[in-house]
Amino acid sequence: MKEALVHPDLEVEIVDSPIPVPKDDEVVIKVVVSGSNPKDWKRPVMANQKMNSGDDIAGVVHQVGRNVYEFKPGDRVAEAASVPLAAMTAAMGLYQRLKLPLPWHPTTTPTPLIVYGAASAVGAYAIKLAQLSNIHPLICVAGRGIPFVEGLISKDKGDIVLDYREGDEKLSQNLKSAVDKVGLKVEYAFDAVSEDGCYLNICKVLDHQSGQIVLALPGKDYSAMPASIKRFTPVPGAVHAIMDQDQFQKETGSKTGNTDFGFVMFRFFSRGLQQGWFRGHPQEVMPGGLGGISSAMKNLKDGKASAVKYVFRLEETEGVERYRTN
After folding, report:
1. CA 56, CA 33: separation in Å to the nearest integer?
2. To 5 degrees, how large is the angle CA 140–CA 141–CA 144?
3. 12-51 pLDDT, tens per residue?
4. Could you say which of 58, 92, 101, 302 would form a disulfide bridge with 107 (CB–CB 3.0 to 4.6 Å)?
5. Are 127 and 150 in contact (CB under 8 A)?
């Protein structure tokens, strides 16, 4: 099979790798379309080494482990090239970190939430999930993707979109005006960007006694934030492997945690996609299959992507035969 390794200079090396054999609880998927995320360029740069950090795929189940009962070879894994990592990051941030009401127990009281980077995949999924949980009003911040975000929110419930391109001073003023209009203290925020000090603008209006913020980018120095504001970083990989106990386990001694949350939420996403009340993120197909990854990584690094996720059709990769999906 072909594997793409992203180098620190964002050039991509395509190599031949053996087809993996699934462990007892795993499935092997023949990938038809692969998606990308900002961390796919950030991790090689931060680690200064080449790596394959791809997570989002769509395709056909090739082989299953002996304990797998929900899937069989030939099953299609549809629309997943834009969903898993970003949607789970949003879900973990909202529910496992901020402890907001789950979609099947939506809140009945006003719950203001700031979403910064609302046109990004993570930000958009945070909005979609917040809608399902009846979390309003949403104070969203975006740029070129504002028209896209306006199609996700509910203005009749007080949701609003602000433009960060007017500069920090103007954005701070607009955030304050929006919060004043809400008439409630704002205790929750989701920063899907977590760069260029955008979280500092949020902290100017987030309640300094009970405020909590999810920061999508781990490993940064957030010491400039007020110490009284609780800050969290979601770790979507924790739903696949038992890592440190989550907040609920630490506080209650529960035997269930992130892996069980992931088990439920991924099936919730699948049900929503099947029934049409949950949708993936808009996609742009990069030409050349895996050969288009380098351009996508550079676009992501340069901030050229807005309200779109770059995806790659593997059959367009040089040296790859056309896939059969039946």
Report:
1. 9
2. 125
3. 999 999 999 999 999 999 999 999 999 999 999 999 999 9
4. 101
5. no
